[in-house]
Amino acid sequence: MDRAFTVHTDRQRWTAEQLEAMPDGRAFMERAVRRGVREAALSCAYAQFTSADVVTVPHPDGSVTMTGRVLCDEKDCHIAAQRHHFDDADSIEAKAATDWVAQKELDLAPGELDVVQKRVSTDFDRRQRRASLGFCLIGVLCAAAGGAMSQYDYTKPEGTSPGTHIQVWLWQNVDSVCNHLAFPAVIAGTLLFMFGVVRLAVHNATAN
Questions:
Q1: In angstroms, rounded to a whole number, what is the distance separating the alpha carbons of residues 50 and 104?
Q2: Residues 150, 81: Cα–Cα separation, whole Å
Q3: Which phi-psi region, left, alpha or beta, contains residue 36 (left: φ > 0; alpha: ψ -120 to 50)?
Q4: Which residue of 11, 111, 152, 169 is most buried, as measured by CB atoms within 10 A?
């Protein structure tokens, strides 16, 4: 059975005035089109994590039309697309999207969608790894802060009293806070670091 392809599309036309209102109008518009493709298919991993192909068409009046497209073979997307009612504009875009898919199929080797899926998985893997490393880094910083606080020891000068010297009162309170937080900070930092290491190990094991 042949796979059913779906093209997630967003098409925008901006006037010359709209483009001139931005410091870099076309680049801003292209970002808006790519965002539009993602928003048009919020539940599709291909649309969310694959960079859309953008086709730019300038017009004589200075306006510009940009169309962003992402190809996917998700069954749910195909079912949803079949329920869509096509008007004249959609029919034109459907024809253009069909031509675009045919061109991509000719330009790229068989199994193109497998490559796209691997790229999506790679992006997900990178985010998971960054999150795990983030836990490790926060854990190290937290434990280091706890260790630094444990080394702080304030001794008030002889002949001074917290009741009459504001600085003595302040530094004694700082010393008290450090004494109370040092051990919990070290424990919390160690647990966060271990959580990050375990999280990274589990992710590596499941990814292979």
A1: 15
A2: 62
A3: alpha
A4: 11
